[in-house]
Amino acid sequence: MNIPLFAPYVRLLSDNRQYRWLWFSQVISLTGDWFNLIATTTLIAKLSGSGLAISGLFVARMLPPFLLGPVVGVVADRFDRKKILIAADILRAAVVPGFLLVRTERDLWLLYAIIIVQLSISSFFEPARSAMMPAIVSRKNLVTANALDSTTWSTMLAVGAALGGVATALLGITAAFLIDSITFLVSAWCVWHLHSPARDDANIPHQNGFTSYIDGLRYLWHRPRILALTLVKAAAALSFGAMDIIQVEFANTTFRIGADSSATLGIIYTAIGIGTGLAPLIAQKYTGENVRAMHWAITAAFALSVAGFLGMAWSPTLAILLLATIIRTGGSGVAWVFSSALLQMHVPGGFRGRVFAFDLAAFTLAAATSTTLAGYAIDQTPLSARGIALVSAAVSVVTLAAWSTYHYNFRRAAPADAALNP
């Protein structure tokens, strides 16, 4: 317990050159991602101002991973994962400048179309990256690597969102989109320095695409504890997907700073970055690589989400809203990190791409559903942003109860690692 909080992460980066290049690529590309998100959200709010229009942005970002799940999982398990990452980065760099063509409300269809193309390409990136991780990071460092990934995501969210809000307000939307495009090229250059890791699936036969996908579903069906872990992110997203809309509503009406919502939205995303970044680091210090402790951490994560949503619903000031956001996203960050690490520990390499594709597809479907319903509620019902936050708290209570039931049954199984039946 006397080890400094960040020492394991510094050690991982200094000792593992492969992971270091992969981490560099994440840092660079995420910076541009948050510039892009702030710019597109601000653009839609300025051109339309509709809750449904804003929810359409997040749905357009979420649906491609769900629709393409059967394809991307098979691709990640069949082809060189390093080449998949590089190709995805280069293609996204070419697509992003298309946002510059969106000038009026009548052009919003083009913005949605470009987002769908960009996120369709990104759908191939994340499962391949997650599936590659156990091949370049030892089992004992998997939780550390996933926690560092989450912290990096969160830190770049905090930094990128803050800078994105300032840059969009001062320099305009054009600069944000151009920066995003350049970061993808730099990310591809970082990935190019990786040595393609040896595949750990030599004993798993590769069949045609559709049969391979069905085999992946069959693998999950016969391993309910692995299936439960792939649904952790989706369970969390059933409630926090609505926050994509609520945050914009809070920023645009209740706690606006300046002429538009970009400054407040940037501060809120900074709070999200703090929560999702610090909570997994703190939790990992106590759980280590212990499987049962990691399950307890996920239980605590769902409880934090309930508390965070209630705090948002009753927040009288921006400061309280930000504190509640940190608590809520701390829970979602822990759930994300530990469910990913447990899957990487126990899923064989030959199935890992398909499992993570299913994991991402379930998450995006749940988040898209939650976001769409929140956008509809803002436009078509008397519910306010605070009211929707209360509904999200109620949904989180249900998911906490469901996971607690699973966790109780898991604790009765023995031994912990074998109970996952990989």
Could you describe the largest sheet, including whether it forms a barrel? none
Count of DSSP H/I helices? 17
**Uncertain regions: pLDDT < 50 for 5+ in a row?**
none
- Based on secondary structure, the structural category is mainly alpha
Can you tell me the CATH superfamily? Answer: MFS general substrate transporter like domains
Detailed description of the structure:
Helix 2 (17-47) runs antiparallel to helix 8 (173-192) and helix 12 (243-254) crosses helix 16 (349-380). The chain is 80% helix and 0% strand. It has one domain (15-420): MFS general substrate transporter like domains (Growth Hormone, Chain: A, Up-down Bundle). It is mainly alpha-helical. The longest helix has 32 residues, at 349-380. The mean pLDDT is 81.
Walk me through the topology.
Layout: H1 7-15, H2 17-47, H3 51-67, H4 69-78, H5 81-95, H6 108-136, H7 142-170, H8 173-192, H9 209-221, H10 224-230, H11 232-240, H12 243-254, H13 262-287, H14 291-313, H15 318-346, H16 349-380, H17 385-412
Helix pairs in contact: 1-2, 2-6, 2-7, 2-8, 3-6, 3-12, 3-16, 4-6, 4-9, 4-16, 5-6, 5-8, 6-16, 7-8, 7-13, 7-15, 9-16, 11-15, 11-16, 11-17, 12-13, 12-16, 12-17, 13-14, 13-15, 14-15, 14-17
Task: Note the main attributes of this structure.
422 residues, mainly alpha, Growth Hormone, Chain: A, globular
